Amino acid sequence: MADPVAALKRALHSAIAGDATLAGLLGTAGLVDRPARGAALPLIRLTEAKAADWSTGDGEGHEATLALDALDASESAASLDAIAEALSDLLAGDLQPAGFHVVLQTLRLSETREPRERRHRIRRLTLRVLLHSDTI
Description:
Layout (H helix, E strand, L loop, with lengths): L3 H14 L2 H7 L4 E2 L10 E11 L7 E12 L5 H14 L8 E14 L9 E13 L1
Parallel strand pairs: 1-2
Antiparallel strand pairs: 2-3, 3-5, 4-5
């Protein structure tokens, strides 16, 4: 059985790497599973990935959920807002993980976090991607 989360992660990596707007906003960082200590910001970090059975009487189906954190250390939230908008535009398109047919795709902003102290200047914005798919 194909892994819907792995297929979705590959599709996201590919889509983000190929998007000129996000490339301009993120520089070389892009989407990472685990940023290296002292990694250049801004970047998008994959923080949660899980799959569940979504099968019906007609066939095999999957629900895949990914949480993406956009991280930035700039003084204002404008950079994160631009990243969120570009990511939303990208994901509003036709994201088709290999081996799966996407039936329903949802993207929502779930949290924003301002730095608590001046020395911790990293801002975070969390987006959740939910995909319901059938196996091809």
